[in-house]
Amino acid sequence: MDDPKLSFCQTCAIRHSSLCGALSSDEIHNLNKIAQRKSLRAGQTYALEGDTANSFANVTDGVAKLMHVASDGRSQIVGLLFPSDFIGQPRASENRQKVPHTIEAVTDLELCLFPRAQFEDVLEAFPHLERTLLGRTMDELQIAREWMVLLGRKTAEERVASFLLHVKTKMENAVCKGTEGFELPMGRVDIADYLGLTYETVSRQISRLKREGILEMEGGKKVIRVDEARLREIAQF
Amino acid sequence: MDDPKLSFCQTCAIRHSSLCGALSSDEIHNLNKIAQRKSLRAGQTYALEGDTANSFANVTDGVAKLMHVASDGRSQIVGLLFPSDFIGQPRASENRQKVPHTIEAVTDLELCLFPRAQFEDVLEAFPHLERTLLGRTMDELQIAREWMVLLGRKTAEERVASFLLHVKTKMENAVCKGTEGFELPMGRVDIADYLGLTYETVSRQISRLKREGILEMEGGKKVIRVDEARLREIAQF
DNA sequence: CGCTTAGTTGAAGCGAATCAAAACTAGTGG
DNA sequence: CCACTAGTTTTGATTCGCTTCAACTAAGCG
To answer: Would the CB atoms of B196 and A127 count as touching at under 8 Å?
Structure first.
């Protein structure tokens, strides 16, 4: 009953919002046995593009980024991972078993790691876990495609507005409600790499939103207030 | 033995390269019962963004595009579907059961349709089918993220080079081998919408590649010869 | 408190978009 | 077979939004 390992998962902050939510209290034991915690400081690398992928993970706290860095230094963030998001590509085709994008901690990060082979056994044993993972992957694909629209066709102003709305939603899911305002998990450089812009352009657009009274901030990260309606207009949602 | 329905799937051009490849000759019967063919002429719409998604499909012949069209007319293609690609998001979360992107036939198109509920039953019955679908979805996600890098950071020249390589691979998979050269399945406007450029810019870049001897074409669509090595250099793969 | 890093702001340059027109293609019917 | 038309592609001239380069300011930290 008071098995320490069982309570390890049971007290987990993302027990029900993550992939693990698909498993019952009994079933979760199977993951519990193979899970191990890992902490990274902001800026540390979890995996490098091209490495062999030998584990999967849940983000339990903090924010991570998936990114591609070209040889000439240009870099593009292709996804942000918030608490309860899953890391890794089980079942991807043979030639895609390598880590497809570098994964780095944006803030201090807490992960719950699963060794590859053992996690795949659990997936095999619980088809409803695999089904849930399929659903999450479908959702991720849609998010990626929506971001393609942003990167391909939106103006700098629209991109920054979209970003603020996107992060607001994500951060409100993660943090306790009620608090008007939220913290940007990343600096101007990362925002720029996520939006396909330069950090100067991002800074200018943020300044502009502040000047027009749509956005109020305290320092570079803390958002005090946003006019969500006007932001939505600008972002073209 | 010579059941006409069975031979319907057995003679299918994409029997083994599509999702159906996960099913044995016995199992395929279950899909056979619910499958129905559908033909579309180039330019016809299969589904509109926001519609209720009540069927899934395999592309059996031709090319389709997934796209988003904004209210002001800007449009972005977020994915191309070639023969043996799967259409639809089974298991996507509740609020994502709507068609996420408009689907249109780029060339004349042949589809193999599966009604939603019945296909989900088959998925439930054959976990290895669901597993295969998961793998394909993981692959699609990676392709989408790679395209995000293109849309966010690549120059017009790099985008066009990447596009030519991408289509070359896809078309060679679909068409009988041996033939040096291939046909572009789409016009300049669609290419531009796929690459986040204008059609004038696409045309200029293609002209440039021809002028530099990297590309030889006959008319606007037929590619006679490409210098794949130099294209790869330009595209930054 | 000085030092380093992150963010802001300004001026100039450039790549792609826009505007405009000509050349080519494909389809139609005389 | 050729003339005619509608649509597509190419090419040119100009404009514009974002990038680049540069200087400055604010914030975080030993």
So the answer is: no
With the CA atoms of A63, A119, A133 and A105 taken in that order, what torsion angle do they form, in degrees rounded to the nearest 10? 10
- At which residue do the structure tokens 């041996």 appear? B178
Could you read off the pLDDT of A214-233 as tens digits, one per residue? 999 999 999 999 999 999 99
Looking up tokens 């029900």 gives A16
> In terms of Cα–Cα distance, which of A52, A23, A139 is closest to B140?
A139
Instruction: Please report, to the nearest 10 degrees, the dihedral formed by the alpha carbons of residues A187, A52, B149, B171 taken in order.
Output: -170
Give per-residue pLDDT as tens, A21-64.
Answer: 999 999 999 999 999 999 999 999 999 999 999 999 999 999 99
For B32-100, the three-class secondary structure string (H helix, E strand, C coil) is HHHCEEEEECCCCEEECCCCECCEEEEEEECCEEEEEECCCCCEEEEEEECCCCEECCCCCCHHHCECC
From B152, which residue of chain A is nearest by alpha-carbon distance? A196
Both tokens assigned to A11: 């007290």
Q: How near does any CA of chain B get to the CA of A176, in Å? A: 23
Q: Cβ separation of A134 and B96 shorter than 8 Å?
A: no
* Strand spans (E) along chain B: 36-40, 45-47, 55-61, 64-69, 75-81, 86-87, 102-105, 109-115, 182-183, 215-218, 222-226
| Nearest chain B Cα distance for residue A27, angstroms | 18
Q: Measure the CA–CA gap between A156 and A162, rounded to whole angstroms.
A: 10
CA distances from B19 to A92, A230, B56, B188 (A): 14, 44, 12, 31
On chain B, the residues whose CB falls within 8 A of the CB of A142 are 89, 92, 96, 100
B198 touches strand C (CB under 7 A): yes
Give just the sign of the alpha carbon dihedral A193, A199, A201, A206: positive
Length of chain A: 237
3-state helix, strand, coil in chain A (%, to 5): 45, 25, 30
DSSP state of A236: T
Q: Beta carbon of A189 within 7 Å of strand C? A: yes
User: What pLDDT digit, counting tens, does each position of B126-178 carry?
Assistant: 999 999 999 999 999 999 999 999 999 999 999 999 999 999 999 887 655 55
